[in-house]
Amino acid sequence: MRIEEVRDQIGGRWAELLGLLETLSEPEYERPLGDGWPVKVHLAHITAWERSLLGILGKRSRAAAMGVPEDLWQREDTDAINGFLAARATRETTDAILERLRDTHAELVEAVGELTDKDLERPYSDYQPGELPHNPNPVGGWVAGNTWEHYEEHIGWLRAGLGS
User: Fold this and answer.
1) Which tens digit of pLDDT belongs to each residue from 118-151?
2) Ramachandran angles phi, psi of 106, nearest 5°
3) Is 164 a residue whose pLDDT tops 90?
4) What confidence category does residue 64 fall into, taking pLDDT thresholds of 50, 70 and 90?
């Protein structure tokens, strides 16, 4: 996929997510959905994984970028990481989560805006050289998986849980 398509996919799915959020009242952000997570926790989760991508692209620790303890990250247990993120988010206000969602996304759009087609094809390990074993898969997969594909997944859960 070319970088222009990546930017279009991110922008399109993001606009769809924001459009859905604009229809919500304050109490709906706190309402648990079918998976038990309130809407605000879904949004904090999206933000955390966008921060993970910022860590990748910035050649920094993904755990640190997400605010996840390194020992938890090293276990490579996505469910445990997501549980940690969810527990943290339940203690936060909706306004704080929404502000971080917007700020993180703006930072991510800027970072993706600096990428080229060649950058998307570079191996993951070029961005995270300290992670072993070497991962030759193109980093573009992480870009997709932590942006528009991830938004789409949560848009589906939000729509199903909110009955929209």
Assistant:
1) 999 999 999 998 887 889 999 999 999 999 999 9
2) -60, -40
3) no
4) very high
Number of domains in the chain: 1
Chain centroid to CA 83: 15
Alpha helices (H) along 58-147: 62-66, 70-74, 78-90, 94-113, 117-121, 124-127, 140-145
CA distance linking residue 98 with residue 95, whole number of Å: 5
Angle at 141 between CA 137 and CA 73, to 5 degrees: 80
Q: What is the CATH number of the domain that holds 7?
A: 1.20.120.450
Q: Which domain holds residue 152?
A: 3-162
Other Cβ atoms closer than 10 A to 91: 7
Angstrom CA distances, 5 to 1, 70, 100, 134, stand at 6, 34, 25, 27
